[in-house]
Specification:
Helix content: 10-25%
Strand order of the largest sheet: 2-1-3-8
Mean pLDDT: 93
Shape: globular
CATH superfamily of the largest domain: Hypothetical protein ph0010, domain 1
Distance between the termini: 14 Å
CATH class of the largest domain: Alpha Beta
Number of strands: 8
Strand content: 15-25%
Structural class: alpha+beta
Length: 177
Amino acid sequence: MFEPSTVYAKIAYDAILLYLKTGKKLFKEESEIPPALKLNLPCYVSLYSGNQLKGCIGHSTPVHSNLYNEIIENAVAAAFEDQTRGTLKEEELNNISISVDVMSEPKPVSDVSQLKPHKHGLIIEDSQGKRALLLPNANGSDSIENLLGRARKQAGIDPNTPLDQLQVYSFTTTRYQ
């Protein structure tokens, strides 16, 4: 059974359990939230069943006014709304793990050679609005070229499009499990 080691992962786990049992999301009022979770920051919640990624949902800008409710929204979406991997089933609960990645503000990148794939996440966008976001160390990416290639593929951007024709942003995350 999953034993969260941080308050962030516990919020996500509790949100998933509540939604599984009731179909409801229990958001909190600002006055009920601890100060560190009142920050207006984006996050991604990743849900694993065994070693398989079951869901990963988040946003590069916050949808809610505080991190607490952002975690709830993304945890439920990762468990029940990620269309690529199917929804979480009750029998999988004993074999799940959860991580919450709290993002820094994305910053424009002028020199991609300065990026480190284990430290920096990547947002890439072309002039037609095709866009992708990859978290740091996405699926073990070991080079920035690999990360850029995966981001282009995920966004549906032609791999031959020169970098100077793309908008590239980097960010860091703090991971909580």
